[in-house]
Amino acid sequence: MSKVVRRLAEIPAGSWTKWVVMGFWVAAVVVALPLAGKLMHAYKNNASSWLPASAESVKVFNVQSRFQSPNTFPGWSSTTGPRG
Fold first, then answer.
1. How far is CA 6 from CA 37, 52, 61, in A?
2. What is the pLDDT of residues 19-28, one digit of tens each?
C-alpha cells in the first residue's frame, strides 16, 4: 500500500509535472489573449447602463460627460523622493 501512495504522491511532485502545468498555462493565455480584446466591446461599465435614469449618479454622469473628454481616463500616480 505504501508503494502505491508513494507513486501517487510523486506525480504532482515530479520533475515533469511543473512543465505540464507551465504548458497548460501558456496554452490558456495564448487562447485567452485574442478573446480579451473582444470582451472590452461586450459590456458597458458605467452607472448609466444599469441604474435607472432618475438616479442622481446617472444625472451627474450625463452632466459630467458634457465637460469631460471621452478619451480622458482617471489615473493615479505615486512617486517617492530621496527622503522617502
1. 45, 61, 62
2. 888 999 999 9
C-alpha cell belonging to residue 16: 515533469
What's the pLDDT tens digit per position in 17-75? 888 889 999 999 999 888 877 776 666 666 677 788 888 988 888 888 788 777 777 78
Residue type, 56: E
- Residue 22 backbone phi and psi in degrees, to 5: -65, -45
Task: Return the residue matching grid coordinates 461599465.
Answer: 45
Classify residue 16 by its DSSP letter.
T
Sole residue written with cell 517617492: 80
For CA atoms 26, 29, 33, 35, give the dihedral sign. positive
- Note the pTM of the prediction, 2 decimals: 0.41
